[in-house]
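Title: Prediction job returns without error message
Component: structure pipeline
Severity: low
Priority: P3
Assignee: unassigned

Description:
Job completed but the reporter wants confirmation the result is attached to the right record. Sequence as submitted:
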Amino acid sequence: MSSETDRQRLHGMASTAGYGEAAEALAEQYESVTFSEVHRDMLHLFPSRPSSVLDIGAGSGRDAAALAARGHRVVAAEPTAELRALGRRIHADQEIEWVDDALPELPGLTAQERRFDLILLTAVWMHLDERQRTLAMARLVSLLESEGRVVLSLRHGPVPAGRRMFAVSTEETISLAHGHGLEVVYEAHREDPHGRPGVAWVNLGFQRVPGRKRPDVGPRR
């Protein structure tokens, strides 16, 4: 951002700002590209056997549905009610557990002490500020199985009007993950699958290091 006022405005916005109002258009955009197209570079990171998967910021459910169709037990966490409703309708043929939960705390899933083999965050991480990213990384690791993986994407480019996004570097993300017991197993840079000018992505895959102690993320509520 260009000024301190702009930065303060961003921090004051909700991470889901602008998504409810634009849910129909966003769902159409999300569904215009396939799971395989979006994740083509990272398909080898996804479990080959039926596994427990958490899709955070699931949006219209495109990825959750594709993973459920592959036999995985999928929880789709989406804090925007309008997108959850659309996702349930669009992918009614797939067995997906939709929940109203969000980073950095994921209070609902945390209270249930859920554990996942894979946690997927597609176009989510840039909505969190620095403090929230630190809290969120600890929470993600606390929800992983002993050798579970986190697969996430970092967005680079202009911020759409009315949205809350922060510049997040690959180096910071890898360092933060490492500090919470994750090792990077994959990194790739790619163009925007929607062809938006100036937008590019970095895809990262992390895996829990066996034997590492789970992070202390405070009392479970």
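Comment from assignee: result matches the submitted record. The chain has eight helices and seven strands.
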